[in-house]
Amino acid sequence: YSLLGSLRAVAQTISYEVSLALVLLSFIFLVGGFGLELFSLYQNKVWFIMIGSPLALVWLASCLAETNRTPFDFAEGESELVSGFNTEYSSGGFALIFMAEYASILLMSMLFSLLFLGG
C-alpha cells in the first residue's frame, strides 16, 4: 500500500508543478529576466498581486497541492494507511521526509513573497 500512496504523491506533484511553472514563466516574461532582484525592482510602485490576482490564486492553490496541505492531502491515504506513504521509513528517513516537507513550505512562502509582494 505504500507503493500506491507514493505513486499518488508523485502524480500529484508532477501535475501541479506545471501550473507553478506557467505562473513563474509569465512573471519572468513580464520582468524580462531570471534574477530575483528584478522582481523586487519591478514592484516598487505596484505589487504583482494587484496586477495578477488570478495568477496569485493559482499559485496559492498549486502551493497547497505541492506541499500536500489539507485540501490536497489525498496522496497520503490516511484512511487506508497509518501515516500515509511514509510508513516504510523509520527514524532518520522519516525525520528527513518531514523536514523536507516543511522546507518546501518555507520555500513556497518565500517565492510567493518575492513574486507577488515585492520581496
Automatic annotation (TrEMBL):
Segments forming a coiled coil: none
Domain of life: Eukaryota
E.C. no: 7.1.1.2
Transmembrane segments: 20-39, 46-65, 94-117
InterPro entries: NADH_UbQ_OxRdtase_su1/FPO, NADH_UbQ_OxRdtase_su1_CS
A single GO cellular-component term on record: mitochondrial inner membrane
Entry GO MF terms: NADH dehydrogenase (ubiquinone) activity; NADH dehydrogenase activity
One GO process term, biological-process aspect: aerobic respiration
The protein's enzyme class: translocase
Keywords per UniProt: Membrane, Mitochondrion, NAD, Transmembrane, Transmembrane helix, Transport, Ubiquinone
Cellular localisation: Mitochondrion inner membrane; Mitochondrion membrane
Its job: Core subunit of the mitochondrial membrane respiratory chain NADH dehydrogenase (Complex I) that is believed to belong to the minimal assembly required for catalysis. Complex I functions in the transfer of electrons from NADH to the respiratory chain. The immediate electron acceptor for the enzyme is believed to be ubiquinone.
Family: Belongs to the complex I subunit 1 family.
Descriptive protein name: NADH-ubiquinone oxidoreductase chain 1
Organism: Paramunida evexa
Protein encoded by which gene: ND1
